[in-house]
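Schema walk-through. Below, the input block comes first and the output block second. Nothing else is stored per chain. Lengths vary across the set, and this one has 295 residues.
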Amino acid sequence: MNEKDCIMLQYLAEEQSLTKAAERLYITQPALTYRIQQMEKEYGVPIIAKSSKGTRLTPEGSYLADYAKKTLIDLHKMKDYITGMRNEVKGTLRLGVASYFGLYKLPPLLKMFNEACPDVQIHVTSALSPEILDLLHQEAIHVGIIRGEYPWFDAKYLLHDEPIIIISKEEIALEQLPELPHILYYEPRIKALSQTQSPFSETIQAWWHERYSVPPTITMRVDTYETCKEMVKQGLGYSIVPGVFVKPQDGLYTIPLIRKSGDPIKRNTWMLYRNSSLDLAIVNRYVQFMKNQHI
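--- output ---
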């Protein structure tokens, strides 16, 4: 099983679709099907099964896909180690970034880093923070950038924090909130974490229970902060969002969330990595680069 086969199996496992996997591999579906048939002959087991609902991996195929995933990680670590032996700032830097950071903050930073280290190839995965954390645990990425508080017991660095605020089209008083229509942001949930509430939601609930004995009047549930803001602009209710999403030109009233103790409630953006990975020149250089930026 070569590297291309490993990537093919990984995409099949992620997509559960021959068409989508072929698109990601930039090959035709017949070419992908042919290679799968060759592997089935080689190993003597069925790798995929087709049904009216689409394509899925067989138990044998799932085992091969898991093996392929581990093999790719080991292959990347081997290449990193060989490159690191020369202590050269070159090779492939694998980053995982929270979707917001990838959209609003990362592009100019990567441009600056690329200009300073032109021999470094950068692979970026943009996803939800729990997914980024999972990639770090798997050692599939070198550095992760997440938003919010998640357990990580190795190296971490606070890139920036932002206030969490109430936004409304008209001026409102905190005492009014339980009776006013609330546009609730809810974080899309990942299957593996479907029973886990996001740290952002937990923070908001804790603040609410400090002040009110009744639940909010939720009239809408939306899955992006931008949608929350646009609904508020139309006077459809108030919302609670990180302050970074709201600009003066939005023309909205804002109230920062403050605990009864007087402490402001903020949302942090963290850079996570392993101390051992700093032995790699490209990771060390990137981590120091990010620490020197005033994000």
